[in-house]
Amino acid sequence: MSTPPSSERRGKSPRETQVEMVELVLPNDANTMGNVLGGRVLHWIDLAAAIVAHRHSRTEAVTASMDEVSFLGPIRVGQLAVIAARMTYVGRSSMEIRVDVQSEDLLSGERRQTSTAYLTFVAVDKAGQPTDVPPLLCETEEEKREARAAEARRAKRLRSRGLETPGEIPQR
Ligand SMILES: CC(C)(COP(=O)(O)OP(=O)(O)OC[C@H]1O[C@@H](n2cnc3c(N)ncnc32)[C@H](O)[C@@H]1OP(=O)(O)O)[C@@H](O)C(=O)NCCC(=O)NCCS
């Protein structure tokens, strides 16, 4: 007999849905200085986060917001962009995903952090209405710390939309 998906049993851990994507920066991705375009990096960030959201919810999911993103250093043509995304917090229908971007030099192997972004995706049904998602099961101390920090970010986002923070969703 096959095992039911973990979401049907109890929820999902960040480990079960995390994503690492690698892109080779080509001239078509770059500005006239040979550095990757910011918009291209934002696209990769959105894609990686979307995959995490879909793996967690197994529903349609849309980008609701992306918090401020900085580009701390360039990624040059011929280098790799390594995009790592993982679930940090789950509400009723919303999911916060952290995406880290690093440059990797193919010859030296040196990696540098270039961006960190937090995105909120909302799981939606066929009519595009928000729908509940399985809870997040934090397994490590770092995941628990990240989930607590996410609650503060969520409250800030709600305030910026003129909304009160609803009751906390316990992260397990
Ligand atoms: C995201 C969307 C489905 C939310 O619909 P809504 O009717 O405003 O939803 P609600 O107010 O009932 O909120 C539902 C959840 O989304 C969250 N949410 C809504 N807008 C948000 C925003 N701008 N940022 C972060 N979270 C948001 C709420 O906090 C709530 O979370 P919870 O269920 O975990 O408590 C709707 O705004 C939408 O379809 N937006 C367009 C999405 C899209 O097309 N994205 C692609 C890029 S344009």
TrEMBL record:
CDD domains: BFIT_BACH. Residues 15-127 form the HotDog ACOT-type domain. GO terms for biological process: acyl-CoA metabolic process; fatty acid catabolic process. SUPFAM superfamilies: Thioesterase/thiol ester dehydrase-isomerase. One of its GO terms (molecular function) is long-chain fatty acyl-CoA hydrolase activity. The keyword Hydrolase applies. GO terms for cellular component: cytosol. Residues 132-172 are annotated as: Disordered. Keywords: Hydrolase. Residues 142-153 have a biased composition (Basic and acidic residues). Belongs to the acyl coenzyme A hydrolase family. This is Acyl-CoA thioesterase. The lineage of its organism: Bacteria, Candidatus Eiseniibacteriota.
